[in-house]
Amino acid sequence: MKYDKVSIIIPVFNVVNYIEHCVTSACAQTYGNIEIILVDDGSSDGSGQKCDELAEQDARVRVIHKGNHGVSAARNTGIEAALGQWICFIDGDDYVASDYVEYLLGLAQTFNAPTAVTLDVITPWKKGNQATGKNLLYTPEQATIAMLCYRFPIGVYSKIFRKDFLDANKIRFFEDLIIGEGFNFNCLVMQKAEKIAVGSHTVYYYRKDNPNSVTTKFDAQKWENGLHAINVIRENLSLENKKIMRAFLYTYWRTHTDAYDLIILSHSECKYRDMYEKTLSVTRKYALHSLSVPVSTQNKIRAIIMFIYPKIIPYLMLRRRRKHNAEVSTQGNDGAR
Description:
The protein is built from 12 helices and 11 strands. It is of the alpha/beta class. It folds into 2 domains: 200 residues, Spore Coat Polysaccharide Biosynthesis Protein SpsA, Chain A (Alpha-Beta Complex), CATH 3.90.550.10; 104 residues. α8 runs antiparallel to α9 and α9 crosses α12.
């Protein structure tokens, strides 16, 4: 393995309870040639001060303080400041395995690819695997379809990017997006990369473990921006064929169903009548389209149920989230005894 430098970029905004664990996991990498860039996006809860304290403990950690301009601007700031030949990201309330960098960099270098992704991410709803499947090489078309069909994690975590590739293709985050910014970034990468290395080793832990936070609020402005983000993806599709467009239609449907789910759970059908009717219409109109694209069996079943009785899915999802949070709370109480 070439001993290239890797820049780990961590945007930070009001995650004072999580950032130390996040940074500690980044500092504990088995791959030594790293720098860790913490971009404090105008935090008001003491996260910025905590970042400064962490930087004093490890010379590889740099902190950039800036005004609150959003996660896209924070990540772009990190990219511009990066000294490494490779870039990867961690969200400030998540954490990574000790071989996060070593695995992703090794995967990319083995295939001489400008980017690599691991499919297996531990989330509140799914346990990971430590070594499953074979390492594969995807074409731009295959990778773009996989991204649009949610076969790849849509966030920028669990991936590594060669910096000169990002610079040459002028790939950055769209700073007007407050949701879907990572999805857009990844779609640009998958289309522009000549090949994409794909593995399945668990190295990223997507943590949403506050037992008191079962999200049932609907933010209309946020979701208007999310629907706009899907239009931005469409505008930037440089690979256009029937397979790609079918995959994009699934993304269009999936985004509307996600918004619909929150409208139902927040009992906002009357307050946001126009958006409710639009998301319900798209949910039903394109539900069975999911049967013609390469999505998981679970998502095909979800689509069929959404077509027949759309209101049941949001409550099934909420029940699963509450069950997870109850388990987290129980584990925490057990650990405190």
